Amino acid sequence: MLLHVPVSLDGLLSLLAGCFTQPTFQTFRAMVLGQVSQTGRRTVCGMLVGARLSGVWEHSRAHRFFSRARWQPDQLGLVLAALIVERFIAEGEPVTVAVDDTLLQRWGRRVWGCFYHHDATANSEKAAVAWGNNWVVVGICIRLAFLERTVCLPVLFRLWRPRRGEYAKIDKPDPERPGKPVMAREMIALLAARLPGRRIDLVGDAAYATEAWRGLPARVTVTSRLRSNAAIYAPAPERTGKRGRPRKWGARLGKLSEIAADTATQWTEQTVRRYGNTETLMLAVIDCLWEPLGPDTPVRVILVRDETKPAGYQLALITTDLTSTPAQIIERYSDRWAIEVCFEEAKHQAGVGDAENRTEKAVQRTVPFQFLTMTLTICWYALHGHHPDDVAERRAVAPWYLSKTNPSFADMLAKLRRTIIADQYSPGRLRAPYQQKISEIQQAWAAMIG
Questions:
Q1: Which of 98, 172, 375, 405 fits a disulfide with 153 by CB distance 3.0 to 4.6 angstroms?
Q2: In this structure, is the dihedral angle defined by the CA atoms of residues 60, 61, 62 and 68, taken in order, positive or negative?
Q3: Over the stretch 369-419, which tens digit does the pLDDT of each residue have?
């Protein structure tokens, strides 16, 4: 059976052909088509059904694509990352990258890489632990002309597994099972090598504010939320001219709550746009050193004042970026929320994590493939699918969406599905098979009459 891929989508997929052998690339095209077209569960066989290849291809061909075929998610993600930066980020502009982890629940003791993890999305404290795979995800945050919100496009992935044996007992790093920040550092290094000359601004939550970022290249900055008990120090004092090694650290500063309550702390009023709202905030800026990054990496701590909070501040950020304004740092950190939206859409709309395969290689490649298909869907919509009437058509079908002004990921996915269906059933494609079928029926009737 001929695989019908719309020209606009096929042109995008062809840019990734170098990541596969020729036979594997054809399977990749089919799996992308099936992942997008399937409205039910996106298992491996479900993708085959979505591509209309069930009963045409052996299901083992689809399973081999994930378990045995020669392709690497890192290579695919880096090629896609370069494409995103080239098409959606202006020359010379920094690339904002978000990092976070998410739990994808699985069933079965024999699924590779499964453990009990804390489930941050659980509705009850009693059910705050779930069995599944925990993925560390790095995504590129971009702004599209037709959207008011920032969009996160996931490109690199690592499956995290807890430490084992003696390493779990003595709180010692397991060389075979690194921590989440270490995995994130590894992926950022790959991304920086793929994007030479581009500045990369990384944002993450407090879990990623660790010593893993010590010794970063100058063109990579990290911004994260700072823990309330963080130990920060004044910059090293000037050399005294006396004998002996000069001091690397200044005096230890107080706790963040003490700094916020100190009458000597200088607060400045600034207008900041975050989470879709424009706010006037009182900010305090502290240039200091932070113990995990060492004395050779100066950092800046930004406090957002809130006297209604017991600590006296609403938010504390730490950044290695000393050139951007405090308002820009806060706005950049607010863009981190886009990766949380991405996880929500991935699980409930894109079907990421639906696959039921169990072997090591299949587990490590299926979820990245599904995330990358989600990224491809958004890229396709931005390059070929968007039309100003999309939102009006959606509101006409669902008039209760009174505040809808921007297309959602669900709208993008539906638009691509309709494009695929239109291509499969276009008259030009169906004319030749239809005539052939008529000839076969005529010959059959002639044989019966004769």
A1: 375
A2: positive
A3: 999 999 999 999 999 999 999 998 888 888 888 888 899 999 999 999 999
